[in-house]
Amino acid sequence: MNETEKSSQWHKTACILCSLNCGIEVQLDENEPRHIARIRGDKAHPISRGYTCEKPQRLDFYQNAADRLTSPLRRRPDGTFEPIDWETAIAEIADKLGLIRDEHGGESIFYYGGGGQANHLGGTYADSVLKALGSKFRSNALAQEKTGEFWVQGKMMGTGMHSDFEHCEVAIFIGKNPWQSHGFNRARVILRQIAKDPDRSLIVIDPRRSETAELADYHLAIIPGTDAWCLAALAGILVQENLIARDWLAEHATGLDQIEPLLASIPVAGYAEACGVPEDLLRAAARRIAQAKSVSMMEDLGMQMSIHSTLSSYLQRMIWLLTGNFGRPGTNYALVPFVALNLLNKGAGISRESGEKPEKRSPVAGARIISGLVPCNIIPDEILTDHPRRYRAMIVESANPVHSLADSQRMREALGSLDLLVVIDVAMTETARLASYVLPAPTQYEKYEASYFNIEFPQNGFHLRRPVFDSPPGTLPEPEIHARIVEALGELTDEDIAPLKAAAQQGRPVFAREFMNAMATNPVIAKFAPVVLYRTLGPTLPNGAASAAVLWAACHLFVQANPLSARRAGFTGDQFTAAESLFDAILDNPSGVIFAKDEYEDSWSRVRLPDNKINLAIPEMIAETQKLATEPLQRNPDYPFVLSAGERRSESANTIIRNPDWRKKSHAGLLHIHPQDAANLGLKADDSARLSTRRGSADVVIEITDTLQPGHLSLPNGLGLDYDAGDGVIMRVGVSLNELTASEDRDFLAGTPWHKHVPARLEPLK
Ligand SMILES: Nc1nc2c(c(=O)[nH]1)N[C@H]1C(S)=C(S)[C@@H](COP(=O)(O)OP(=O)(O)OC[C@H]3O[C@@H](n4cnc5c(=O)[nH]c(N)nc54)[C@H](O)[C@@H]3O)O[C@H]1N2
Ligand SMILES: Nc1nc2c(c(=O)[nH]1)N[C@H]1C(S)=C(S)[C@@H](COP(=O)(O)OP(=O)(O)OC[C@H]3O[C@@H](n4cnc5c(=O)[nH]c(N)nc54)[C@H](O)[C@@H]3O)O[C@H]1N2
Ligand code: SF4
Ligand SMILES: [Mo]
User: Is the pLDDT score of 569 beyond 60?
Assistant: First the structure.
């Protein structure tokens, strides 16, 4: 295909700006063929079906950023970087990691990241590097938002779950603004449908009149940080007005006898006052929930990144469980993940189904490890110490912890004090700037990638995306980087893989037999399975799809664990044939495939607790609920405002796009403030002010809006990046939020941060 044909063609891929990864089609610029010129939704994508929001129109800012990395870099003693070749980079990194392992043990090498919003294929191969090093501790962004929810979910259901907003009668969102942040497919279409149907209701629990709250039938505008009181009051009303689904609970749940007296004693009027919502409105919402045939409920950062987050995850579940809303259309369901992530990438925390691993604690701070992830907020404590088991080296892949985790100042200090920091990214990030070595990867449009947050039901989809562009010289895809490190460590030799390489030449049936055999007989093959597959099966896959090799094993594991789901999705025959045809379907369908079809009742068999019954009573959470009566929300008079540090707006997308020009001027990261507060401070629209927290201060420009309550301030997520436009001049637009947050402000159990609840002070800058 010549360049002109290539540019006029529509290439199928996905948007990478949030976890939904909607299918899109892109056309390249005729004159500048490395640019994306036009973008439209892919109607053939089996999940998003042509839907997109406005953000992907600006994806070329990601693809063609000026701070893209094009060569491995090594830090010089003076802190500047020099380009080096790949052979040198891999040899030196493997050598240094090997020395640290030999001297201090593999436990001292910490892995962070492994995939952002749409790129988890590379991270599955990192597992082999970690095994080669004997590394045991890892984390990623899920451990600063979802681990409290995972812990509760593990104790109550032993399975991951999601909600069926498309079919529910009542939808409830707490600390979640799906109009902007999505979180489920085709969110705006579905929200509009619910809002305009007189028989359906939308309940939003959010201190702010968000775009979603605008559409709500019931907006419970709580005082920031009082979710636990609001939820306890709602659950209290359900019990006290006898609105609970008693027969259903008798059949499907245990522990009601322990929580009923607790909820019966909730002083509803007092808790209504504590959360600032009129008691009548709380009662009306609770009755609406109890009446409905189906209720779906979702929590997100507004609750998960605030005080009481783990407790609120527990109380949130009471609302829909006490009313029997699980395992039917329109309610909440247990999903079927693509098992590979569980088995091949153990502990990555992506599948949302593992609860707490018994007794697992971080080596220095002794923090609880949930779903295999060390709490993000304690990472600096694990490094900034002379403890013999401290982390001494770190590999960061596809993440920017210096910018995205609490307390950037301590994170910089911690990363700066490591013996070795290796960063794998596409761009020169705030974290990469501190690295000993920076390894450049192609963008997600220059390699095979996969969208992994598969949470749809009753049909679940998987999308393997093909490259739209060739990868630039100087970059290597992550699977290749990981394979080379494992090989340079001397852990996997040509002799180990030669028989499988030969078998792969004879077709997949022969390969499958030999691979299973090798897994059972050669411990090296079992230990490094992802990289082995990449090196043996990988080169035989069509169209250069070597990175997809790990998915072959994933297909087999999936069909083995869920034969019925696969059969309903059309993958029939014996287990081997079904798995092979699923793998072929993934390779052959550039818009993605449905890999599982389920029945709502299947949810019950996935509740992995005794008798498949839901457990309502978690002792730690019962004790926390009791404390609500005597421990009111604390206020610090020196910091009279509550700052929500990280609102999702229409032009924020974590830090995936670094060039600030992707936003219109009017969205340049303004601080939202209520008119009354602005007037009290003598501030007018577009005035500058100094925002201070216990940890730091920043200059902000304000926007006045009555969508916020008095006393509440809000700043957008993902801004304040130091973007080098190529001329050495750093552009910074908006506030780098985590310069203002403190790592000790975190949940008592899961260690998740309180970013939505940062005590703050605001002073006019004159
Ligand atoms: N446009 C856009 N979409 C995104 C992202 C993005 O950067 N930009 N990021 C993606 C990611 S990684 C995630 S995790 C999701 C997050 O998605 P969301 O959690 O929906 O996003 P937020 O805007 O951070 O927070 C949601 C709401 O919490 C409210 N809130 C603040 N304080 C409180 C409180 O004390 N209690 C309650 N109940 N609510 C409160 C805020 O007013 C806000 O409306 O979004 C994803 N989607
Ligand atoms: N104060 C505050 N802090 C927050 C939040 C908040 O609301 N408030 N939100 C938090 C949330 S929910 C999240 S999820 C985190 C997200 O924070 P992180 O997990 O750090 O991830 P992203 O900001 O998504 O950045 C992804 C990185 O991947 C790189 N990248 C993109 N494509 C590729 C690729 O193909 N290969 C490689 N190797 N790298 C690639 C990008 O350049 C970028 O550096 O931020 C958190 N931080
Ligand atoms: S930002 Fe999210 S919802 Fe919007 S198009 Fe991209 S993947 Fe879809
Ligand atoms: Mo997130």
Answer: yes
Query: For ligand 2, is residue 717 a contact (CB within 6 Å)?
Result: yes
* Nearest-CA residue for atom 28 of ligand 2: 398
Which amino acid is located at 706 in the chain?
Answer: D
Provide the pairing of β-strand 758-764 with 641-647.
antiparallel
Find, among 367, 225, 405, 363, the residue nearest to 302 by Cα: 225
DSSP 8-state assignment for residue 223: P
Judgement on whether residues 304 and 172 belong to the same structural domain of the protein: yes
Tokens encoding 548: 């997809």
CA distance 595 to 570: 8
Q: How far apart are CA 538 and CA 111, in angstroms?
A: 25
For residue 403, give the ligand nearest its CA. 2
Among 440, 459, 487, the domain boundary falls at 440
* Interval 8-27 mean pLDDT: 96
The number of angstroms, rounded, from the C-alpha of 13 to the middle of its chain's C-alpha atoms is 20
In a domain, 345, yes or no: no
Give residue 667's pLDDT.
Answer: 59
- Mark whether 78 and 58 lie in a shared domain: no
pTM for the whole structure:
0.97
Atom number in ligand 3 closest to CA 48: 8
Query: Which residues, 6 or more positions from 409, have their beta carbon under 8 angstroms from its beta carbon?
Result: 695, 696, 739
Question: Could you tell me which residues come within 8 angstroms of residue 760 by beta carbon, excluding any fewer than 6 positions away?
Answer: 639, 641, 642, 643, 691, 692, 693, 713, 740
Q: Which residue from 21, 26, 22 is spatially nearest to 6, judged by alpha carbons?
A: 26
* Per-residue confidence band for 341, with pLDDT thresholds at 50, 70 and 90: very low
Q: Under the phi-then-psi rule, with left for phi > 0, alpha for psi from -120 to 50, and beta for the rest, what region is 120?
A: alpha
Q: Which residues, 6 or more positions from 588, have their beta carbon under 8 angstroms from its beta carbon?
A: none
Q: Are residues 212 and 316 in the same domain?
A: yes
Nearest to 589 by CA among 572, 570, 573, 576: 570
Q: Residue 257's Cα: distance from chain center in Å?
A: 35
Vertex 298 angle, CA 294 and 299, to 5°: 150
Looking from the CA of residue 300, the nearest atom of ligand 1 is 19
pLDDT given for residue 347 in this prediction = 36
Last residue of a domain, one of 29, 44, 63: 63
Q: Minimum-distance ligand to the CA of 190?
A: 3
β-sheet bridge partners, residue 699:
690
Radius of gyration for the chain, computed over Cα atoms and rounded to the nearest angstrom: 26
pLDDT, position 669: 77
CB 470 within 8 Å of CB 113: no
Ligand 1 pocket by Cβ (under 6 Å)? 18, 145, 174-177, 180-183, 205-208, 210, 222, 224-225, 227, 300-303, 306, 644, 646-648, 652-654, 717-718, 756-757
Tokens linked to 367: 């923090």
Question: SS3 of 448, please?
Answer: coil
Predicted confidence at residue 53, as pLDDT, reads: 96
| Residue 726 lies in domain | 641-764
